Fold this sequence. Notes:
The chain has helices at residues 2-18, 105-108, and strands at residues 31-39, 42-53, 56-64, 73-85, 88-100, 120-132, 137-143, 146-148, 151-153, 156-163.
Amino acid sequence: MRRAIAVFTFLLLSALVAAPAAGQQYFIRTSTLYVEAVGSGGMVSLNFEKLVADHVGVRIGVGGTFWWFAESLVVPATVSYLVGTKNNFVEIGAGMSFFALPDDFNEQLDDPLYEMDGSQIAAAGILGYRYMGDYGLFMRLAFTPLVTEEGFEPTGGAALGLSW
């Protein structure tokens, strides 16, 4: 767990150093740090996204579940394409989420979010609406399905953060 946090911190700091200078206008904000609830990063995740080309974003995050956070780790990594202008976008993306879960994860919960046990890599999708405000406000509401070893897991996520 500590190693995963150290790697995530290194990637985040590296991207921050490479970010463009401050004082940009809203339409060229290229970095976003946000918290997502119930998306492809588990029940809650902290994510960093960098626009690497016009309308193309790359995201890495770390998350887990509320009451089992110490025992579960989820690492989402996705690539998204943004369709829209100014502040409003449709987001279409795909990637993967690495789940490090205990073998008896579903037995520990009355109503599990994901029907899976043990560690695995799941295919992740994103289809949703994204708002990037004039002063850095970031909001997203998206359908974020997963394809796991157990099958199709339809999930949706809401995100709130800051872009610069």
